[in-house]
Amino acid sequence: MRDTIIFLSEQGLEIEGVFRRSANVTLVKEVQLKYNSGQAVNFRDMEDVHLAAVILKIFLRELPEPLLTYQLYNDIVNLASVSSDSQVTVMKTLVESLPEENYASPRYLITFLGQVSANSEVNKMTNSNLAVVFGPNLLWWRGNAIGPINNFTRTLLDQHHLVFA
């Protein structure tokens, strides 16, 4: 995740729709095989920002458990029932309750996505657009709760400087 985000930070912040376009399926599979066999992947050699973006989303989606964990699923889905002036405090508490590795990874990812969103005039990736792309990759389970998950993700992006403070 770190290598992909570093590359995207350097090369992808001004690419329109950076997380909305697909990549060559053959290249995606080749990169996945490299990662799965412990080989280094150098996105600079491939010169394909969309490939790196797809790999990041696939990595998150294929984790055995989502970064935001099944344990927080109900609290996240029900965040809308919390008063808006208490939501940041509740989100901070939820995120801080994550296991250490599950806290560090979303903090790193969301901080990066804040940089992406800061360039939304060029890349068209607002916090709302990023939430639609990343919400289902940060938390999933059963049921049809994609709306609440995306709303949580958008609020997390909007307030990341307070949630991860």
From TrEMBL:
One of its GO terms (molecular function) is GTPase activator activity. GO terms for cellular component: cytoplasm. Pfam families: RhoGAP. One of its GO terms (biological process) is negative regulation of endocytic recycling. InterPro entries: Rho_GTPase_activation_prot, RhoGAP_dom. Transmembrane segments: none annotated. Residues 1-164 form the Rho-GAP domain. This is Rho GTPase-activating protein 1-like isoform X2. It comes from Parambassis ranga.
